[in-house]
Specification:
The structure is a single chain. The chain is mainly β. The protein has a domain of 59 residues. The chain is 12% helix and 31% strand. It has 1 helix and 5 strands. The chain has a 5-stranded antiparallel sheet with strand order 1-2-3-4-5, with no helix packed on it. A hairpin with a 4-residue loop joins strand 1 and strand 2. The model has no long low-confidence stretch (mean pLDDT 82). Keywords: Cuticle, Signal. This is Cuticle protein. It comes from Meganyctiphanes norvegica (Northern krill). One of its GO terms (molecular function) is structural constituent of cuticle.
Length: 134
């Protein structure tokens, strides 16, 4: 047993004493970036210098609403669609007396309900009331 231990110690000693790989670590760089020896060519201007336009006033022009009814006022219209093949149903009714627009439209939704939108605009903005019918 002592002979086996002696042989193992001898082999480990020989292995450690043998020369290792001939590896030389790389030298640390002197600077992070190397400057090229000489430039290949001068830089070329590929694009023309852009023309910078003078700033413009891009605010929208606000036009006052007409003081009298427009020639197509008053008006009244309605239409509706009931397509039995696709099941699509919708309608729109609207009238205007020259001052106030009123109307209603209906749309059949995929869940079977009908969305009803009643609206009016009296010049102070669009107003709508949305309800659903089963």
């Amino acid at each position: 047993m002592a002979l086996k231990v002696a042989v193992c110690v001898l082999l480990v000693g020989v292995a450690l004493g043998l020369p290792q790989y001939n590896y030389d670590p790389p030298k640390a760089p002197e600077t992070l970036y190397e400057t090229p020896a000489e430039s290949v060519q001068e830089p070329v201007q590929l694009y023309e210098t852009p023309i910078i336009a003078e700033p413009q006033n891009i605010a929208p022009v606000v036009v006052a609403p007409p003081s009298e009814p427009m020639p197509q006022m008053p008006y009244e219209f309605d239409f509706g669609v009931a397509d039995e093949e696709s099941g699509n149903q919708f309608s729109h009714v609207e009238n205007n007396d020259g001052q106030v627009t009123r109307g209603e439209y209906r749309v059949l939704l995929p869940d079977g309900r009908t969305q009803v939108v009643k609206f009016f605009d009296d010049g102070n903005g669009f107003n709508a009331e949305v309800t659903y019918e089963k």
